[in-house]
Amino acid sequence: MANLIDSINKISELKIDLQNLFNLASVTWHMKLYEDRINNPDKLGELYRNADEREWRFVPKWDIKKKFIPTIPRSEYELNKSKFDCGLKDYRLVFQPNDIHYLIVNTEDEISEFIEIIKNEKLINYSTDDVERLMSRILSCDRIISDF
After folding, report:
1. How far apart are CA 134 and CA 101, in angstroms?
2. Which of 23, 42, 99, 130 is disulfide-compatible with 126, CB 3.0–4.6 A?
3. How many C-beta atoms lie closer than 10 Å to residue 134's C-beta?
4. Domain regions of the chain by residue span
5. If phi over 0 gives left and psi between -120 and 50 gives alpha, with beta otherwise, what is residue 77?
6. 69, 39, 67, 33: which is closest to 51 by C-alpha?
7. What is the pairing mode between strands 47-49 and 103-105?
8. Residue 140: helix, strand or coil by DSSP?
9. How far apart (Å, rounded) are the C-alpha atoms in residues 119 and 134?
10. Backbone phi, then psi, for 54, in 5-degree steps?
């Protein structure tokens, strides 16, 4: 019994603030290895330079009180997709058409198809001007390479 009380006292002496601990851990959610082996079955084990992607990541502010773990092992996610997807509903990235500066497709041929997708989607929350502005922001990789 004395050992148990000593252990409890040692733990309480640490005075770990759980929110600060998670704030520190959240730094890793913004990070990606410079290079890593590919996990895709088509290119399994090939070395890939992640830094070439120049991508950004959306990392929502996580509230420790919500009891939702922002990092889930893939194997666990595959077993309980609906449960985890339901937990994600409060962590959506919300943006408006004016926030979009470029819509980039691979080839010039894909632009017409993409315009049709934009026209046919149920964009009821957006004005005709917003939809037309989105269509005007479509660029192809081919055009970017040839123009710049």
Report:
1. 8
2. 130
3. 20
4. 1-54, 60-91, 95-148
5. alpha
6. 33
7. unpaired
8. strand
9. 10
10. 50, 40
Q: How far apart are CA 51 and CA 10, in angstroms?
A: 43
Contact 84, 77 (CB under 8 A): yes
The single residue listed with the structure tokens 């929502």 is 60
Q: What does the pLDDT look like over 14-44, one tens digit per residue?
A: 556 666 777 777 777 777 778 888 877 788 7
Could you tell me which residues are beta bridge partners of residue 48? 36
Q: Which residue has the tokens 């640490």?
A: 14
Distance CA 102, CA 54 (A): 15
* pLDDT tens, residue by residue, 104-135: 999 999 999 989 888 877 666 788 888 889 89
DSSP-derived secondary structure for 111-132: HHHHHHHHHHS--TTS-HHHHH
Structure token digits, residue 99 = 């926030």
